[in-house]
User: What shape does this take?
Amino acid sequence: MVARLRIAIAVSDAATRELLEGSLTRLGYQVEVVTTGQDLVELCRSCDINLMIAELDLPPAGAIEAAQQIYQRRAVPLIAIVDNDELSDLDCPSASFVFGFLLRPIRPSVLTPVIELAERRFEELQVLRDEAACLRRALCDRKIIEQAKGLIMRQSGMDEAEAFRRLQKFARNKSKKLSEVAEMIITAQEASGLFTTARV
Assistant: This one.
């Protein structure tokens, strides 16, 4: 059973549009059709589009330019329709939005495997991005916790291990994450310094 993906087709050539729309509809996909990059951007911003299929030379500025604008709001994978002499254009850094390609003339039999491959590549990239975001957050949390621990050590004379245990205990008692408690301590210290400065 084919998932009911919502696919945007952006092609200026009428025959290619009809071929793609008919083939994808028969395969069970929901299909939206536009003819320009501007229309594609507006469509993806107003509708829940899961995948784009667009000719690389889509007017007025090309499919990659349209994809870049769309990615500013949310990530939508792009399958580019290309001629043989355009394949080298997919090697540039700006083509990182492209997760697959269809060679002209398009054969309906290749649509499903190309779409499925593009979906897998996009999902893998999203997982990597999520993992990278988690890692960045973990590093940020660690920095905040270390800063709060240092404040406790300076103000109370505790050693590092005891200061960390106090942080953990306070977090448990408040049912908060350790990083949240650390942020509270840092914010309180900054506010205290602000009031101290104001009195001077």
Observations:
- The helical segments are 14-26, 37-46, 63-71, 111-156, 160-174, 178-199.
- The chain has six helices and five strands.
- Strands lie at 6-10, 30-34, 51-55, 78-82, 98-103.
- Confidence is low (pLDDT under 50) at residues 194-200.
